[in-house]
Amino acid sequence: MIHILNEQNSILNKFLAQIRDKVIQQDSMRFRRNIERIGEILAYEISKTLDYKSQTVETPLGEAEVEMIEDKVVLATVLRAGLPLHQGFLNYFDDAQNAFVSAYRHHSKSNEFKIVVEYISSCDLEGKTLILVDPVLATGASLVKTYEALCEKCGRPARTIVASVIASEQGVDYAVNHMPKSTSLWLGAVDSELTSKCYIVPGIGDAGDLCFGKKL
After folding, report:
1. How many CB atoms are located within 10 Å of the residue 137 CB?
2. What is the phi-psi region of residue 127: left when phi exceeds 0, alpha when psi lies from -120 to 50, beta otherwise?
3. Could you say which residues of the chain have pLDDT below 70?
């Protein structure tokens, strides 16, 4: 299942417009906060698809029956760009377990690159609901590599959900073809063009640099 949130008008469009705007992007704090707010919107929409069970809550005046999330949720994030988006999800899934993966593009002299995973910090994923968040889904290669590394080290989740702010059509196709068939994708927006250097157009640029400053 592929869900593209900006296909329906909502306040999300305002936050998407601001993270794309090269003038507003100069305010890194505002950029991070908008990514976080988009994460909150994605988290809310995703929460509607989870499994629930009834619980009784005692109030000062009696008892109330409420539906509570039954899934054991794990939020997994690709460092470093994913941190503000992760925080948006954590604001809503505040009792979720968390996983962090360091994955990056290693470029060769021929300008080709491979995805390198150097670090994983995660709980056991076996039988749980994995929400893998990454602000930009460009080629999809880092997403798939991250998922495979998590499964190899930490077990296979019962359910996988991918959440991104901006995706390319190519990245979406790659994820659909290389992730488990039951994976659902939740995307803020999908852009059609991917450059030869694998940047999305119009996209937003380098999310990590915009959040935290340029790297060496």
Report:
1. 24
2. left
3. 104-115
